[in-house]
């Protein structure tokens, strides 16, 4: 068999005919040309198979695998089996790479052999007004670049847009590959990898335009709804707390509202004990919820007095809470963690 390429691109597609040619063009125009594109057609019913066949006939770096419509996770795992390089870059059929994307991510992984995953900054490929929530998430992702920052904020949201990553295939396979279930497959993978000590960082440059089509899975599939994110993060957050919380299993939850409490309650199924809630609403402060006191945040005490987990999800709340805690000497990862 021929020498494996330096980088394999894992490209699962289904019914991507309108956007696929542009995505392929952006990959074939990469400055780092020693690549293969492993395109897994997941049972497309449009012109996608024909587009892939023509592209593969024109460029031998494109490998096409057709499977029945089994879903994204089986397509990803089948593609992983076919990728010949240990460096695998993800890509979707509606996204576009900058010409030096693969070169710069490979360079980061080559320079830092301790890294398992290299992501990058992404441009929002949608209507920022009509899809303000997604645009906000892209901005949030782009604000978390370093290993430490990604690790400390991974329980807020998924810190890596899936198509933006390049990873070491051996690490992904060693962790069990992609898992199928009632959860977002990419976020679960990032949490699982970091739980295993895998280090993740980003190239601090915009190397991908992340598309936002109206039919994207995260809009239409229950595995990507808010409750699914909180359910999957609870198990990994509980495992992290067991290792890092000096008061384990006791935690104080910042946020006494019904939604915050409901999400924090998921921790209890994993052995975490909620001792109190924190709020600033005078209608809540001084009362008790399920036998647990609701205290004002001014009553939290100094660093080292307890461990707090913040579940307040309103926009801007996380920054406000971090600013408040850090002004009092609390340190992220040592005294508190953000979970919303």
From TrEMBL:
Record keywords, A-Z: Glycosyltransferase, Transferase
GO MF term (any one): glycosyltransferase activity
Domain Glycosyltransferase 2-like span(s) in chain numbering: 8-136
Domain CoA-binding residues, every copy: 251-328
One Pfam family of this chain: Glycos_transf_2
Keyword match ATP-binding: no
Gene3D superfamilies documented for this protein: NAD(P)-binding Rossmann-like Domain (3.40.50.720), Spore Coat Polysaccharide Biosynthesis Protein SpsA, Chain A (3.90.550.10)
The keyword Kinase appears for this protein: no
InterPro entries with a match to the protein in the record: CoA-bd, Glyco_trans_2-like, Glycosyltransf_2, NAD(P)-bd_dom_sf, Nucleotide-diphossugar_trans
Lineage top rank: taxon: Bacteria
Family listed: Belongs to the glycosyltransferase 2 family.
Record's protein name: Glycosyltransferase family 2 protein
The organism of origin for this protein: Oceanidesulfovibrio indonesiensis
């Amino acid at each position: 068999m021929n020498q494996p390429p330096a980088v394999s691109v894992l490209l699962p597609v289904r019914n991507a005919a309108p956007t696929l040619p542009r995505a392929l063009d952006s990959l074939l125009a990469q400055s780092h040309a020693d690549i293969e594109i492993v395109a897994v057609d997941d049972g497309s019913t449009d012109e996608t198979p024909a587009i892939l066949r023509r592209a593969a006939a024109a460029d031998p770096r494109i490998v096409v695998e057709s499977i029945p419509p089994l879903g994204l996770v089986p397509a990803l795992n089948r593609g992983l089996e076919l990728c010949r390089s240990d460096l695998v870059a993800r890509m979707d059929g509606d996204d576009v790479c900058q010409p030096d994307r693969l070169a710069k991510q490979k360079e980061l992984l080559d320079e830092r052999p301790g890294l398992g995953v290299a992501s990058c900054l992404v441009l929002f490929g949608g209507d920022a007004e009509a899809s303000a929530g997604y645009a906000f998430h892209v901005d949030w992702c782009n604000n978390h670049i370093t290993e430490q920052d990604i690790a400390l904020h991974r329980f807020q949201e998924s810190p890596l847009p899936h198509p933006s990553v390049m990873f070491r295939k051996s690490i992904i396979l060693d962790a069990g590959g992609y898992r199928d279930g009632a959860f977002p497959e990419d976020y679960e993978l990032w949490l699982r990898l970091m739980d295993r000590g895998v280090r993740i960082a980003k190239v601090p440059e915009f190397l991908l335009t992340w598309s936002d089509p109206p039919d994207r899975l995260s809009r239409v599939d229950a595995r990507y709804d808010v409750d699914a994110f909180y359910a999957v993060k609870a198990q990994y957050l509980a495992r992290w707390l067991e290792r890092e919380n000096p008061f384990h299993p006791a935690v104080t939850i910042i946020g006494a509202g019904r939604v915050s409490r409901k999400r924090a309650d998921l921790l209890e199924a994993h052995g975490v004990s909620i001792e109190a809630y924190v709020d600033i609403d005078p209608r809540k402060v001084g009362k008790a919820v399920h036998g647990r006191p609701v205290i004002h945040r001014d009553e939290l005490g100094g660093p080292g007095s307890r461990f707090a987990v913040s579940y307040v999800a309103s926009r801007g709340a996380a920054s406000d809470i971090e600013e408040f805690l850090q002004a009092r000497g609390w340190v992220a990862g040592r005294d508190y963690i953000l979970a919303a």
